[in-house]
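Re: How this chain folds, sequence and tokenised backbone to follow

Filed under: protein folding, tokenised backbone structure, sequence and structure records.

Contents: The amino acid chain and a row of whole-number tokens, matched residue for residue.

Body of memo: The sequence and its backbone structure tokens, given next.
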Amino acid sequence: MTLGGGGGAGQGDDVYGTGGAAGGGALWLRAASIEGNGRIDAEGAPGPRALSSPTASGDGAGGGGGGGLVSIASKQGLRCAEISARGGAGGTNVASVRGPGGGGGGGYVQLRGPVLSCPVQVEGGAAGLANGSNYGASPGGMGLVRQSF
């Protein structure tokens, strides 16, 4: 089990490309019971926007960070508002039709014990855009949820 991976850097031949976004963190939690209305978050960060200048046509935007890891063990039950290990959206490029970033992949959520109410989100991030199109950038893939009793 690992942290969410960082997004890939955007192309930068005019020094205006951006780095990739940070991946989601990791959380291991073990308790007899877990109850509350809070949100458990290990989401990847969104990719940074590509910069531009009057002389450069705009370099590539960075990719979104991958979703992280959430592992929770609770013998008596889990109740929360949400657990999220979504991937971050790819970076946008408003200066040109080149180089939007790809979305980060969804993370991994492992739940051991009864889940009384706690929606889980592990979707991949959306692809970035350049002038309204993704120009071949892909969204991130779906993550994984595993539950055992």
